[in-house]
Design goal:
165 residues; 5-stranded mixed sheet; 5 strands; alpha+beta
Length: 165
């Protein structure tokens, strides 16, 4: 039952990522051209060395900010990317149905253990699926704009970061 539920939620996430991919690639293209993120007054897109992307653990929504070669933040603030989605990346419906399972399964100790197992398995696979999807979007946008920016991708508030190609 746990594996079936995990597959259900991962399939929904993959479908959502397919829907969002063209929007994300377009937003990354705008970012690379200096049209997406506001920079501090003394900086231009030429001053940007690295874009940092962090995602929220539950919603998977992503924010971006920029740093120069000296690792100083040069964006005015972080900004959600892509902007103006009709829902979160891990949709609210998916999120709420996942936690409806907690109530349903939580009536027994065995059910709670299964739910905890599901959350652990789902968290690992969500992270992997999201990271691979973002790397693909990054590559597509870089090919379209021929940029040389560096990028780093991670869950919010962690020191571990995936270097983007």
């Amino acid at each position: 039952m746990v594996e079936e539920q995990k597959r259900y939620f991962i399939d929904k996430l993959k479908k959502r990522l397919e829907e969002v991919q063209p929007i994300m690639v377009n937003s990354l293209n705008q970012l690379f051209k200096g049209e997406y993120l506001s920079l501090i007054d003394i900086c231009t897109i030429d001053d940007v060395h690295t874009f940092y992307f962090e995602y929220d653990y539950e919603t998977l929504n992503i924010v971006v900010w920029a740093e120069n070669k000296e690792e100083q933040v040069v964006s005015i603030q972080s900004k959600g990317i892509p902007e103006k989605l009709d829902d979160t990346i891990f949709t609210k419906a998916s999120y709420f149905s996942l936690y409806a399972l907690e109530e349903e399964w939580g009536e027994t100790e065995e059910g709670l253990d299964q739910f905890d197992e599901l959350i652990d398995l789902l968290s690992e696979e969500k992270e992997e699926v999201l990271t691979q999807w973002f790397i693909l979007c990054w590559k597509l946008a870089k090919e379209q704009t021929v940029t040389v920016f560096q990028g780093k991708f991670s869950v919010h508030d962690t020191n571990y970061r995936t270097e983007l190609p």
